[in-house]
Design a protein that fits this description.
Layout lengths: L1 H24 L10 H13 L2 H5 L3 E6 L3 E6 L4 E6 L2 E6 L4 E6 L2 E2 L3 H22 L10 E6 L6 E8 L9 E7 L5 E7 L8 E4 L1 E5 L5 E7 L3 E10 L16
Keywords: Membrane, Transmembrane, Transmembrane helix
Length: 247
């Protein structure tokens, strides 16, 4: 009985501590001003990261935290995801594809579907960390100018009202007024139970096609993106057209 009593006390204490932590950490979604000021800031951000160069980039490859290796054909909406002994090719238009396990093409259709599903989830997450800034004017987005207390920064709130993987998510980009590059992003997303979780956006690199991408993000966890390379066409990719397997 004493054990159960102490177990109950510990559980109650942990619940109270967790609730207090939630109240301290959780932040309400800020209010902002929609219109010309928000759109002007969006223009400055997109110019700073050279969005036009990104849009002219057909293929990008990168390594996410040393866990997943990606090649993304933005032009044809194809992706290759490699992890452990698995290599999966995805047609992002309809989430179908091919799976190679330990160097052999998988013939089991049901197993292939599961591998494609896993690979797509990796790609959806990892491509967000790669360059979400270029999506601030995607269909279904709304933009709001938000005042900041720091005179060196301005902020743009982007709400994803429809479309994408997680409609309803919102991101507050805190931008340096000197470079107009984002310093950090605060998130109000379905996958994180508290609002306003912040990650830095730093260690910017200029890719081969001229686009700027942040390769380091510090927050609840550290997210590093390595070996980022961009190509104007699939013909420039050193391994050639690896996506012929999908056609």
């Amino acid at each position: 009985m004493k054990f159960l009593k102490w177990l109950f006390i510990i559980l109650v204490s942990l619940t109270i501590v967790g609730y207090i932590a939630y109240l301290v950490i959780d932040k309400p979604l800020p209010e902002g001003q929609k219109g010309e000021k928000a759109e002007a800031l969006a223009d400055k951000i997109l110019d700073a990261v050279n969005d036009s160069a990104w849009q002219a980039t057909d293929v990008v490859s990168w390594d996410f935290k040393g866990e997943h290796q990606h090649v993304w054909d933005k032009n044809r909406h194809y992706a290759q995801v490699v992890w452990d002994d698995y290599e999966v090719f995805i047609n992002l238009n309809n989430i179908t594809g091919k799976a190679i396990v330990k160097g052999k093409l998988l013939r089991d259709s049901a197993a292939t579907v599961e591998f494609v599903k896993d690979a797509y989830e990796y790609w959806a997450n990892d491509s967000f960390w790669l360059n979400p800034i270029t999506k601030i004017r995607d269909s279904g987005t709304e933009r709001y100018y938000v005042e900041t207390e720091n005179e060196e920064t301005e902020a743009l709130l982007v709400k994803y009202t429809s479309g994408g993987v997680t409609p309803g998510d919102s991101y507050l980009w805190v931008v340096d007024k000197t470079t107009w590059l984002p310093r950090s992003v605060k998130m109000w997303v379905q996958i994180i139970p508290v609002g306003g979780v912040e990650f830095s956006w730093e260690n910017w690199i200029k890719t081969e096609t001229g686009a700027l991408v942040a390769s380091e993000h510090q927050g609840l966890i550290k997210v590093n993106i390595n070996n980022i390379h961009t190509y104007k066409t699939i013909n420039e990719f050193e391994k050639g057209d690896i996506f012929k397997i999908l056609e």
